[in-house]
Amino acid sequence: MKAITIIQPWATLIALGAKQFETRSWATKHRGDLAIHAGKQIDREACEQEPFRSVLARHGYTADNLPTGAVVAVCRIVDCWEVSRCLRGDVVLEKDGGNTMREDPIGKQEEAFGWYDDGRYAWDLIQIRQLPKPIPAKGQQGLWNWSYERNENC
Fold first, then answer.
1. How far does Cα 82 stand from its chain's mean position?
2. Alpha helices of 26-117 — where are they, by DSSP H?
3. DSSP state, 96?
4. CA nearest 67: which of 5, 11, 138?
5. What's the average model confidence in pLDDT over 61-85?
6. pLDDT of 112
7. What is the Cα gyration radius of the chain?
8. Is 10 left (phi over 0), alpha (psi -120 to 50) or beta?
């Protein structure tokens, strides 16, 4: 299964279903299953800002108890959108050179949880399932192959 390493708290926000798009500086052609790996780094400052703090707290998380160095969720990538901003400053997600635009606007919370600058990409994640227990794994840069044995965690 393909995997992506994401620093905390963003990996946990995906696992909780609070974040649907993973924003990156690069597009991906991968579609299908994806493991969300929480890297060892935690952005403690982000954890203290809203809406991060409230969403994490609602699920019992703080910067001190976020899982690291482990796969925390599995999901599916169904699309990759190019990010731009309209004249009003709203986020616009498009593809095919602007011929196809995503009809549903992203919410303010989703926007707060991503980096939606012109020229970046938003990976559309669905069927997000938080694992009952994080599975320790060593992460890598970019998309990488995660091997695992199916057990009670998956």
1. 15
2. 44-48, 52-58, 108-112
3. G
4. 11
5. 96
6. 95
7. 15
8. alpha
pLDDT of residue 86: 80
Please give the helix or strand (H or E) that residue 70 lies within, else none. Answer: strand 70-85
Q: Over 50: is that where the pLDDT of 151 sits?
A: no
Position 150 confidence tier, pLDDT thresholds 50, 70, 90:
low
Report the alpha-carbon distance of residue 150 to residue 24 in Å, rounded: 29
What's the confidence (pLDDT) of residue 88? 77
Contact present, 73 and 22 (Cβ < 8 Å): no
Question: Encoding tokens for residue 147?
Answer: 């091997």
Pairing of strands 143-145, 21-24: unpaired
Structure letter (DSSP) for residue 44: H
pLDDT tier for residue 149 given thresholds of 50, 70 and 90: low
Q: How many residues does the chain have?
A: 154
Beta-bridge mates of residue 135: 71
Please answer whether residues 20 and 52 qualify as being in contact, where contact means their C-beta atoms are separated by less than 8 angstroms: no
Which of 67-89 are b and which e, b meaning 16 or more Cβ less than 10 Å from the residue's Cβ? bbebbbbbbebebbbbbbeeeee
Are 58 and 18 within 8 A, CB to CB?
no
